Amino acid sequence: MIYAVAMSGGVDSSVAAYLLKEQGHQVIGFTMYHFDDTAEPFKRHSISRAIDDARTVCQKLEIEHFTIDLKAEFNHLIIKDFLTQYQNGYTPNPCTLCNPTIKWGLFPEKISQIIQEKYQDQPFLMATGHYARKIIIDGKSALIRPLDKKKDQTYMLWRLSQHQLAQTIFPLMDFTKEQIRILAQKAGVPVAEKKDSQDICFIDDDYTKFLLHFISSDTGDMIYHDGSKIGVHKGLIYYTIGQRKGLVPWSKPLYVLKIDAVKNQLVVTDDLSRLESKYFRINQVNLIRENILHHSDDLTVKIRYNSPEEEIAGLTYDNEGLCVELKRSVKSITPGQSAVFYRKDELVGGGIIQSID
């Protein structure tokens, strides 16, 4: 059995490779080249450095390393969708789409081709440096929170399929980040002190600069919640639900209430209660082990990556998707973000927020 480690050049995937090598497995490192980091407006030199770091780690571990070019596929599947979502008034999280289509989709397909050609088509498992736990329940793969809850990355994995999980292991599931750093230092892993990556991999801090490189964003009416025009917005891509900065002067703080891409209008309010809701609708639902969510007992949901979990009062299916009722009102539920369900420590699945009712 070959263990194909998806190596990002960071400490986590590097230690994942180290642990598997120490256990006596045949380990090979693979790194994606998934966007052109030599060109504007992409994050400059980030992929090139990641490939160099991954290659250096593999040399230290005395394992082979391959780079797989997925720039065209990433542009077609992830970048185009990212731009389209913003044009339609949504605030997307591209990582949740990249995981099933690229990282667990085309990437392992390319890995399989290399293994077939160079290693007589030996069976392989894919290993990553994600902080997540996989166990088998009733014959199916289940995703469980890792030991280190502070580094829990299960939220980003809600779109994975049973087939993809069956081919995956998570070597870091029983470690804390602190333990991984110590392991890396003791093993002399070259990236032991490398900082963790933040936010979206292909963008520097300025999202709007990236978006404006590809799409135009026209000014339009800024509408108060009663329907009256109170100003002009500078382009819808500059705003997200709940945002306070960048709005017109007002007697009280204003907040973005709604982004209407069809009318090119930005709806704002000074009434914080209008930002609160118990109801939202999702589509593109994917469930890890179940065929349908039958009940909300012990079910919680996160409406964004860093949000607290919310208890669910009810679930209703209709022709437009799944309507979720929360037990309490929460602020700034944002269309385009992922709503991800948990039952205790198990990741149940998720969907994309479409509207707030």
Order of helices and strands: EHEHEHHEEEHEHHEEEEEEEEEE
Per CATH, the class of the largest domain reads Alpha Beta
Distance between the termini: 50 Å
Rg, alpha carbons? 22 Å
Count every helix, treating DSSP H or I runs of 4 or more residues as helices. Answer: 7
Structural class: alpha/beta
Overall geometry: globular
- The count of β-strands is 17
CATH topology of the largest domain: Rossmann fold
Biggest sheet overview:
6 strands, antiparallel, barrel
Q: What do we call the CATH homologous superfamily of the largest domain?
A: HUPs
Quaternary structure classification:
single chain
Strand order of the largest sheet: 12-15-14-13-16-17
Give the averaged pLDDT, no decimals.
Answer: 95
- Domain unit count: 3
Low-confidence stretches: none
CATH-derived architecture of the largest domain: 3-Layer(aba) Sandwich
Strand content: 25-35%
Task: Report the helical percentage.
Answer: 25-40%
